[in-house]
C-alpha cells in the first residue's frame, strides 16, 4: 500500500493513499458474496444468483460499499502507525474505485501538534478587591423588602401605586392602516407607574373601578423602543377584575425575624447580608483571576486553532443557548434570532476558549496531572448536591449521555488551572 502524509500547515495534514488491486479485489469478492445471499433477480432462486451476475448487476453499489469499508479502516490504520490523532473525522476526497485498479483517495484533517508552553513566571494577574460598601448592603435589604411585599385589595378607582388585574384585548393597526387580529389576555397584572407600561396607558385607566370596562386607543411614537409597535396605533379594551395595593414591610427587627429563626434583629440581618455579599465578591474576584489567566494562556498557543475545534465549540455554545431558551419556555425556532449572526459572534470567544483549553491540556500532559477515582467521586458528590440527585444517579446519567469523559476532562483542566495559578504572579 502506498501512503504519503503531507503537512499542509502547522495543524492541517493531508494523507494520500493507494490500496493495492489485490486488496480491492478481495473486498469486492467479499461484498459480492454478501449481496449474493439476498439478491433477488428474475429467473434465479433467492440465494442462487451466480456471483458474476450479482457483480455485474450491482456493480455501482458493490464498489460504493467497498470504498466505505476500506477507506475508514485504512485511514485509522495508517494514522495509528504514524502516531497521528485527528481532531475530527477526516475529509475524504478524490476517491477512485474501479474493478482491476488500485483504490486511491486523499484525506485531509486537523491535528493538535505537541508544543512547549514555556515558563509562567512572566504572567502577571491582578485580583480585584473584595469590598462591600454600606450602600450595596442597604440596596440588598431593600430588595428583600420588595420581595416580601404583599398585596391588599383596594376600594375605589385606579390611582398611582395600584396594581391592576385585568382582562385585556389589543387590536393593533400598522402605520399603513392594516389591522391585525385581536390579541386577548386574561388576568394580566399591571402596576400603575411601571416604566414598561404603554405610553398613555396609565392615564386612560385612571379612576376605573372593579367590574368596569373601558376602551381606548394609544398611538406609539415612531422611535418607540419596541420596534414592532413603533409608529402603530393599538386599540385596547380593559376589564378590571381586581385592584390591589402593594404593602412593603418595614425594615426593622420583626422583618429580620420573619426571614429566619437565627436572625433576632435587623443588625443580625444586616451582618448576614454583608457576609453573603462579601462571599459573592470573593467568588467573583476568583472567577475574574481565572478568566484573565485563561486569556493569557490562550495567547501561548503557538499555532492557529484548528477550524474543526472552533466549529465544535460554536456548536456547543449554540446548543447551550438553545437549552437555556427552552428552560424559559421559549421555542428557539420561533425566537426571532439570527442564528447565522449569533454563530459569527461566537467565533472569537470560541477560538479563545479552545486555545486556552489546548494549552491546559498540554500543561496537564507535561506535568502528568491526572484525575484519580477519588477526585472524580468528589466531583460527582458536588454535582449531586447541586442537582438534588444521588451520586449514583448522577454517574448513571452521565454514563448514559457519554458525559463522564467530559466531566473528567473538565476536572483535569480545572486542576491544571489551579496548578498554573501557583506559578504565576497574582497581585492583590
Q: Care to count the β-strands?
A: 11
The low-confidence runs, each spanning 5 or more residues with pLDDT under 50, are none
**Shape type:** extended
Number of helical elements: 12
What is the N-to-C order of secondary-structure elements (H for helix, E for strand)? EEHHHEEEHEEEHEEHHHHHHHE
Mean pLDDT: 90
Distance between the termini: 62 Å
Helix vs. strand class: alpha+beta
Note the main sheet: 5 strands, antiparallel
Percent strand equals: 15-25%
Q: What would you report as the Rg, rounded to the nearest angstrom?
A: 34 Å
Residues in helices, as a percent range: 40-55%
What report would you give on this structure?
The chain is of the alpha+beta class. Helices cover 47% and strands 19% of the residues. The chain is built from twelve helices and eleven strands. The strands form three sheets. Strands 6, 7, 8, 9 and 10 form a five-stranded antiparallel sheet that branches. Strands 1-2-4-3 form a four-stranded antiparallel sheet. A hairpin with a 6-residue loop joins β3 (91-96) and β4 (103-110). α1 (21-38) crosses α3 (59-82), α4 crosses α7 and α6 (253-259) crosses α7 (266-298). It starts with a strand and ends with a strand. The mean pLDDT is 90.
Amino acid at each position: 500500500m502506498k501512503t504519503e502524509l503531507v503537512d499542509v500547515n502547522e495543524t492541517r495534514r493531508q494523507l494520500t493513499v493507494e490500496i493495492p488491486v489485490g486488496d480491492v479485489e478481495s473486498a469486492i469478492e467479499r461484498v459480492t458474496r454478501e449481496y449474493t445471499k439476498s439478491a433477488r433477480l428474475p429467473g434465479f432462486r433467492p440465494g442462487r444468483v451466480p456471483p458474476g451476475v450479482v457483480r455485474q448487476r450491482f456493480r455501482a453499489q458493490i464498489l460504493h460499499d467497498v470504498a466505505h469499508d476500506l477507506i475508514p479502516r485504512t485511514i485509522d490504520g495508517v494514522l495509528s502507525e504514524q502516531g497521528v490523532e485527528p481532531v475530527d473525522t477526516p475529509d475524504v476526497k478524490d476517491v477512485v474505485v474501479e474493478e482491476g485498479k488500485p483504490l486511491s483517495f486523499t484525506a485531509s484533517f486537523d491535528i493538535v501538534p505537541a508544543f512547549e508552553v514555556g515558563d509562567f513566571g512572566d504572567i502577571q494577574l491582578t485580583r480585584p478587591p473584595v469590598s462591600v460598601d454600606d450602600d450595596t448592603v442597604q440596596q440588598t435589604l431593600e430588595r428583600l423588602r420588595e420581595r416580601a411585599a404583599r398585596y391588599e385589595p383596594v376600594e375605589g378607582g385606579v390611582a398611582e401605586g395600584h396594581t391592576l388585574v385585568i382582562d385585556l384585548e389589543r387590536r393593533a393597526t400598522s402605520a399603513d392602516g392594516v389591522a391585525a387580529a385581536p390579541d386577548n389576555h386574561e388576568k394580566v397584572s399591571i402596576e400603575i407607574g411601571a416604566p414598561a407600561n404603554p405610553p398613555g396607558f396609565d392615564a386612560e385607566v385612571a379612576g376605573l373601578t372593579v367590574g368596569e370596562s373601558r376602551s381606548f386607543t394609544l398611538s406609539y411614537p415612531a422611535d418607540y423602543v419596541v420596534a414592532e409597535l413603533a409608529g402603530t396605533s393599538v386599540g385596547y379594551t380593559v376589564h378590571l377584575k381586581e385592584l390591589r395595593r402593594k404593602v412593603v414591610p418595614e425594615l426593622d427587627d420583626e422583618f429580620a425575624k420573619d426571614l429566619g429563626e437565627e436572625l433576632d434583629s435587623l443588625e443580625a440581618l444586616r451582618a448576614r447580608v454583608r457576609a453573603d455579599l462579601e462571599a459573592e465578591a470573593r467568588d467573583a474576584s476568583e472567577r475574574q483571576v481565572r478568566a484573565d489567566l485563561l486569556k493569557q494562556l490562550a495567547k501561548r498557543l503557538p499555532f492557529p486553532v484548528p477550524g474543526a475545534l472552533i466549529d465544535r465549540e460554536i456548536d456547543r455554545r449554540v446548543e447551550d443557548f438553545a437549552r437555556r431558551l427552552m428552560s424559559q419556555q421559549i421555542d428557539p425556532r420561533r425566537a426571532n434570532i439570527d442564528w447565522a449572526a449569533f454563530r459569527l459572534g461566537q467565533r472569537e470567544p470560541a477560538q479563545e476558549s479552545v486555545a486556552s483549553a489546548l494549552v491546559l491540556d498540554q500543561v496537564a500532559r507535561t506535568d502528568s496531572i491526572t484525575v484519580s477515582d477519588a477526585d472524580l467521586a468528589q466531583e460527582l458528590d458536588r454535582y449531586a448536591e447541586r442537582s438534588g440527585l444521588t451520586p449514583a444517579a448522577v454517574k448513571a446519567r452521565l454514563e448514559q449521555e457519554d458525559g463522564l469523559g467530559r466531566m473528567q476532562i473538565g476536572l483535569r483542566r480545572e486542576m491544571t488551572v489551579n496548578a498554573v495559578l501557583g506559578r504565576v504572579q497574582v497581585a492583590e
